[in-house]
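Notes to self, Peptidylprolyl isomerase:
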Amino acid sequence: MKIKTLMIAAALLSASYSQAAPRAAKPASAAKAAKPAETARQETAQQEGGIHFSDGIAAVADNEVITRRRLAQAVADTKANLPKGVQISDTALTEQVLMQLVNQSLIVQAGKRRNIQASEAEIAAVAAQNPSLKNLSAEQRRELADSIIAEKVRQQAVMQNSRVSEAEVDRFIEQAQKQGVTLPEGEPMRQYRAQHILIKADSENAAVGAESTIRKIYGEARSGADFSSLARQYSQDASAGNGGDLGWFADGVMVPAFEETVRSLKPGQVSAPVRTQFGWHIIKLNEVREAGTPQERVRNAVRQYIFQQKAERATADLLRDLHSGAYVDIR
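result:
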């Protein structure tokens, strides 16, 4: 089975940059200036990706060429995996898939500029989830790596812009009650209250220094130093001013490595250093609770709804920013 060209299609489809012009995404003056560079971009993409112009060009996304052959395969993959009952014309599907490919390309290029990488362990872990990917071809390996990089970039944008405060939940519930809107009952979910200290690392070189720093901080925490004070002093996350307090969050909100570490802790414990795409963290779990009362369930449902709205907006903003600074030519 061929790897889907866009593993985060569902997220990007809902936030596709549909306002992008059908030819150049930049303003006319910028597009005109960028046009002479198009040949160089295509030649670079051809050299790096082994693309043959005989494939035909469907689009140019900054420094990458998307061939018609790649588009046709992506359309076939998407069509084969459409939910039952979904009706969409071939023209509309092709347009949507092409925009997804453009979006993914811009995100991956942005990730590579930030030195975000997909490790062999990450590629192997994703491949292991699909029995048909036991023997990866070079193309499949590249597609998997690009998908992992794209998801890391998207998760960074989401996690940096999607935190939900208790005050926001209060305002939402109050507004709903004023308008006579019935709030969902919600499902019981395990929730965690934790603090963390983050030392950012946006490249492999930076990660070495960040790991050294976080291990020193971890040593101070294990020696009895107050975690909140350490967070205020060292953390490079927006939560530093609150002593690294992340408030209450449920499963499925944090990035996988962070969430797995939180689940492994008991209240009061501080984790060993853990790396995510944001950098190196140490985490202190303070409380665990089941959102079991009717009020807690409602608040959790509202919190998840607000988070999802913010996550979609963060993804759309990411794409808008990338399109505004890129040359995009849809053929």
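- The mean pLDDT is 82.
- Strands lie at 57-61, 64-67, 190-200, 245-250, 274-276, 279-290, 328-330.
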